[in-house]
Amino acid sequence: MAEETTLHDRVVDALKTCYDPEIPVDIYQLGLIYDIAINDDNEVTIKMTLTSPACPVAGTLPPEVETKVKGVEGVTKSTVELVWDPPWDMTRMSEGAKLQLGLM
Questions:
Q1: What is the spatial distance between Cα 95 and Cα 83, in angstroms, rounded to a whole number?
Q2: Whole-Å CA distances, 20 to 24, 41, 50
Q3: CA-CA 20 to 30 A from 64: which of 18, 34, 56, 95?
Q4: Cα separation, 29 vs 34, whole angstroms
């Protein structure tokens, strides 16, 4: 019997379809997602950052994330909070992302 995916898993899957256009790795593997909170009403709040405050997609990536998460079956509301503390650095990347970028 196949294991049922959780809402959290489906949200993560949606996040893995969002990319920083300058880096060919999804934002989840890049470590840009700091927190995924889902309340009892299936409202999702994402805390995320960008690789730098001057990132050219600062105005477009958070709304894209919000829209994709809102489109996940079961999600009633999606909110993205852009945070800068702690600052992003390459240690937040998954091993797969580092390998894909030739950093390992």
A1: 23
A2: 7, 30, 9
A3: 95
A4: 11
Encoding tokens for residue 22? 């300058």
Query: 18-47 burial string, b = 16+ CB within 10 Å, else e?
Result: bbbeebebbbbbbbbbeebebeeeeebebe
pLDDT, tens only, 81-102: 999 999 999 999 999 999 888 8
pLDDT at 58: 83
pTM of the model as a whole: 0.89
Give the model confidence (pLDDT) of 54-71 as tens digits: 888 888 999 999 999 999
Tokens read off for 90: 């390459």
Please count the CA atoms within 13 angstroms of the CA of 92 that sit on its side-chain side: 19
Walk across the sheet containing 33-38 and list its strands: 33-38, 43-48, 77-82
Question: 10 Å Cβ neighbour count for 74?
Answer: 11
Residue 73's identity, in one-letter code, is E
